[in-house]
Amino acid sequence: MPIAKVRGINIAYQIVGDSGPWIALTPGGRRAHHEFLPLARKLAAAGYRVFLHDRRNTGASDILIAGEEPEESLWIDDLYELLSQQGALPAFIGGSSAGARMSIRFYLRHPEAVRALLLFRVTGGAFAAGRLPENYYGQFIRAAAEGGMAAVCATEQYQERIKANPANRARLMAMDSKTYIAVMSRWREEFSKGGHLPVMGVSEAELGSITVPTVVIPGNDNTHSSASGRAAANLIPGALLHELPIKDQDIALIPFEEWAPYEDEIARVFADFMRGVAMRRAG
After folding, report:
1. For a Cys staple, 30 with which of 58, 137, 211, 259, CB 3.0–4.6 Å?
2. What does the domain layout of the chain look like in residue ranges?
3. pTM surpassing 0.70?
């Protein structure tokens, strides 16, 4: 897998497709990019190049628990630099869950770099606001407080990252647990501030300021309710809403892998949408 040096850290990435307009897709949570490979291959078959990467602190990329800015802002600037290195800007920017939030905020931070937004499984609502800060930060803050960095390394999520990039264990063990707790606590606080907003971390005014074409495919679990997706589509001027033939389920999270039966439809909707964007610009 190719590795790029970005802002002082090593980022693992993959490009699917040999030619055509660029798409950058980002998965949810802190999951690695591999879950998007089947969708990326379908989009590549439709004539696009898809850029996938493991964000810092995810997958096979380096772990670096540091920085004054919110973690998602660090991810955004990393992606901007990665796409700049590839000569891929402006690009279609999209993702699922945390990747959808990141895509919106990528536009707000770098509007000139975005051709259009491809959003699915949008996060919002009280359930997500209560669940995600604990899932992303709280459990690891407690582990560090109770057992130091060895306890952090022993958690399931960090074990996955160490397996993907064994050097991450040494990086974590060299870190003072108090510093780790301070950074993670700051990131949790910043993340939690956006819990009451229609899309987590993005205000109505910010959604209303989006001027690039946008397509939204809602999710169907309590973390990614269809209501959140519809709200995003309603608040983004001119957004296209596409609802899959699925019903909301009263469960915390449906793994993206369970959306596999709908990937052909997702790829078709995204490809048709992007072709329409290109035709309107050409006209």
Report:
1. 58
2. 3-124+197-282, 130-191
3. yes
